[in-house]
Amino acid sequence: MIRNLVFLSLIFFLFSCKTETPQPPVDKKAIVDSTITAFQKTLLEQQIDSVFKKYHFNGSIAIFKDSLPLYRRENGYSDFKRKIKIDSNTVFAIGSVSKQFTSVLILLQMEQGKLNVTDKASQYLKEFQNKEYENITIHQLLNHTSGLNLMGGKLMFKSGSDFFYSNDGFNALGKIVEKVTGKSYDENALELFKKAGMTHSSTGDIFKGTNFASAYLGNAVNFQEVPNMPKRLGGKEIGTPAGGILSTIQDLHTWNNALYGGKILKPETLKQFMAKSAERRHAIFGKMGYAYGIMLNIGKPNSYFHSGYVKGSPSLNIYYPDTKTSVIILSNIADEEKGKGMTFKPHIEVKKITDHLENTLMQLRSEH
To answer: Most buried one in 2, 202, 226, 327, CB count within 10 A?
Structure first.
């Protein structure tokens, strides 16, 4: 690691020095960029391969810099019983990574003048038309500051005064989308996938493909298949707007580039989507900022990310805007008896690796 950094620093130094002997024009930036890319690929291969080996990781991990793949590896089975291997076309349940799609659907309706995030949810949904819920706004549902836990229950706190993560809040947002568009959430989601260029994504309710990664609890030796997947994702326990979208590595990479590249939302709306408007203490990833269905690093590097978990399917999607880099981790087995902290150990380690690499590259660029 240190040797690689020293080598990279030397490359920057050599190309920043002036030479007395006349030389033909050299595209220094292109050479430096290619050197950085080679450095990234080597480092990522060494470190993330070790994560696969250490945790016997069953799933797929990929890293892209804009359209350039820096790292990609699939390992293990999408179907443990029939020994079908995970490949580049495998479709995974992405859990709460789904929330950013619901947020974007809300913001698209705002762009069309059908709603505003400052509106009260009670304007659209009867279940919010009571004394307890009447002042909850769409904004508060989007950043989990509504105080809502489960629909029908008492608020955890006065709306807008604190943070409490609520799947029911996002399912309510899905109902608002349905209300103002006159179409089902599934129809709206499919339209959004098409707009983004995502060709292999669906919702659990309407999935008809053959490449779905069945979800399992336990480990590769002693496993139990989660029943009724992916249909169960649309049920009351989870809810499609909160955690019922299915996707692939490539489609999530396409989504990141389209969303943060300004191809989905208008510039001012995208800023609103990404703006930190709350803070949370995540049980796995610690303290962070929260925007509209996405989390933000507090401090460096700049990143937008969200983890996801439905039984047997831990996931993580990260985007580093400064380098246009996507990091996507999808899996289909979790040993719940060991706790979510252990389930997400590979995800935590990969995020630490890519956070550190991102900071290193940004520092080198600023120095040279």
So the answer is: 327
